[in-house]
Amino acid sequence: MSDTILAEDHGQWVEVTLNRPDKLNSFNDEMHLALRETLETAIQAQKRAILLTGAGRGFCAGQDLGDRDLAKMNGPPDLSQTLTTFCNPLVRLIRDAEMPVICAVNGVAAGAGANLAMACDIVLASDEAKFIQSFAHVGLVPDAGGTWNLTRLLGSARAKALSMTGEPVTAVQAADWGMIWKACPASDLMTDARALAEKLAAGPALGFAHVKKAVHAAGTNTLDAQLELEAAYQKTCGASADYAEGVSVFLQKRKPAFEGT
């Protein structure tokens, strides 16, 4: 396993750390592949939550531009190849994972790093963190799902302004705008994020998987289609052991012991 990614197994959940702190955890090909392999391993092992964070003072500065020095290349790079080979499969993997993927943004999240964070299900950020669509500074379009997520989370006016100006958004502002879930004091970030991962990993996994699917579908479904989808998912979840446990817990006033089925 590459040392560009660290993984700490906590039993029902795993903590994954981007580990190129001297480069603000910017992506090179090795780190792209190592992160995908680590996430795939956690998914295949049926972990019930994944926590993603960064080492050092930054979360992720996006793509390592040291690999994009045109003075050392014979011609312009095909950036679409980077996206189709590395970024896009990673975003799809996070989105399609049935378990909650939590992101703890410990510092600057720029370019694809900001959009990797937004691809996760629940984002907590240090109150010292910033989100920057740095593509504007190099004449590019936000990628790794950036234009999709920004538009849906913030609306077209803010999505276009952030994409064209590259102005930083503080964690507190991002939380106020609904771009992330919440901002935490820097000293509390990882404690809060790990407690959340522990809580979700002990929760009703089948229900959480269907929550993700339902919320994702809501972006394109009509109301009638979404009502039908909710009914179908409630049928599935209502027949689960977790639902039976949840009702028993409520009636018996005790702590739950969800099996995830």
Describe this structure in words.
This protein has 261 residues and is of the alpha/beta class. The chain folds into 2 domains: 5-201, 2-enoyl-CoA Hydratase, Chain A, domain 1; 205-252. 47% of the residues lie in helices and 16% in strands. It contains 10 helices and 10 strands. The protein has helices at 29-44, 79-96, 112-119, 146-154, 156-165, 171-177, 189-201, 205-218, 223-238, 241-252, and strands at residues 5-9, 13-18, 49-54, 58-60, 101-105, 108-110, 122-126, 130-132, 169-170, 182-184. The strands form 2 sheets. A 6-stranded mixed β-sheet has the order 1-2-3-5-7-10, sandwiched between helices. A 4-stranded mixed β-sheet has the order 4-6-8-9. Strand 2, helix 1 (29-44) and strand 3 (49-54) form a beta-alpha-beta unit. Helix 4 (146-154) packs across helix 5 (156-165). The longest helix is centred in the middle third of the chain and has 18 residues, at 79-96. It is globular. The model has no long low-confidence stretch (mean pLDDT 94).
